[in-house]
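Issue 218. Parser rejects a valid record. Input:
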Amino acid sequence: MRTLTEERRQAIIDAASRLFQEMGYERTSMNEVAKRVGGSKATLYNYFVSKEALFETVVRTYSTRFLNEAAAQLSDTASAALSLEQTLIQFGEGMLKVLGGDNQAMQIYRVVVGEAGHSDIGRLFLDAGIDESMLKLAQVMADAMQRGELTEAEPMLRAQQFTSLVKAEIDGIFLQRELPRYTEAQIKSMVINSVDLFLRGAKP
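Output the parser choked on:
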């Protein structure tokens, strides 16, 4: 019975993801999700207490998963033995894995950008792991400053600057009708370029 429950939950997440992409966040209702997945709205609320909670789960499942996993690696004991450069490369590659995977993650991000000006969708997106992941990266920056590997600055600012460099080569793809796929080699090259530039500018 538990497996059926998990399957049902995933079916709801899948249906909601498609609806958010088709209709946008504001126009998607729990009633529409219930219709799409089949079943009653009451059953839907047994799994997710609100549309906000459902959207956050969709984002965590499809859009911020790679970033969250990359941030989780920062706390691994194996990662503790890596140099700052190696740590940043590992984080950057994990962050950009989304480019070689399902374009659904990128489409969800498009929904967020498109509606951020007239709803709370931006805040919901950040709450779905972005803020938490950035705090972990900021701690890496703070530790590196303490060791004298980076010049003194606000750790969160350094984290934001680094992630902006990692994304620099792909920002334009959101304006394209068809989203391209990147190879592992292309992702690695983008990350190495961004780490190199960051360390050249931030090292004492």
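Fixed in the parser; the record now loads. The chain has a mean pLDDT of 86.
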